[in-house]
């Protein structure tokens, strides 16, 4: 009986340990499975996030490509529209470089002068004189310049419908006016302008203003512009004519921009009327 009781107790003890071991093993297995499931969920979540990012990037690339294609199309369309607009308004551009300007020896062959001689109502010129009295147009043939001035004066005097002629010369010191001007053809022309003003009144004027723009322009009526560009020589103060851009602008859009510049200069506090006393005498000293 004692042996039977001990045997049963031992068997029960063994069964209990096995159940405990089995339970422990099961708990470990459940823990491992839970951890693996959690890890798998994390991995799947990251994969989904990566897939979402990739999809987003692809979508942005597609939208960017579509936008780029659309921008190219709009730029191309705008180019066609601008070309059509230029064609419809009849704007034309021509150029005359200094070498060509100096090769012209007749008024008939000078496209700039011919454009100026086509004036019907008014001619406005913004000119430039350097601090030392140099005129950038000195780079041109001065004997021919004098001839061109004479031809234009004849136009002003003989026109049945008097043409309004106004010139503003940019100078370093407006208070000194044109006393430093040393180009004979320009000085003579300024004397002619004042003479015309005395006979034609307000339709002719000559003014000086402070330096603001490193270029010269001519406004012809409401439909054309001559833009004279300058270049520096070896000395920073040496500025000379580089060439001229001749623009026919029937619509007047570009002319309006230069007329705005002109009006600003007229209203500038430094702008003043030139008198005969402000000018050097042709070939020398200031007129008295």
What is Rg?
44 Å
Uncertain regions: pLDDT < 50 for 5+ in a row?
none
What number is the mean pLDDT?
80
The DSSP helix count reads 6
Quantity of strands, as a count? 8
Placed side by side, the strands forming the largest sheet appear as: 1-7-6-5-2-3-4-8
Please describe the biggest sheet, giving its number of strands, its sense, and whether it closes into a barrel.
Answer: 8 strands, mixed
Structural class, please? alpha+beta
Shape: elongated
N-to-C CA distance: 158 Å
Strand content: 15-25%
Order of helices and strands: HEHHEHEHEEEEHE
Q: Please estimate the helix content.
A: 40-55%
Describe what this molecule looks like in 3D.
- There is one protein chain.
- The chain has 288 residues and is an alpha+beta fold.
- Strands 1-7-6-5-2-3-4-8 form an eight-stranded mixed sheet, with helices on both faces.
- Strand 2, helix 4 and strand 3 form a beta-alpha-beta unit.
- The model has no long low-confidence stretch (mean pLDDT 80).
Spell out the blueprint of helices and strands.
Elements: H1 2-89, E1 92-97, H2 98-103, H3 111-117, E2 122-128, H4 142-158, E3 164-171, H5 184-200, E4 204-210, E5 216-220, E6 224-232, E7 239-248, H6 253-267, E8 272-273
Parallel strand pairs: 2-3, 3-4
Antiparallel strand pairs: 1-7, 2-5, 4-8, 5-6, 6-7
Helix pairs in contact: 4-5
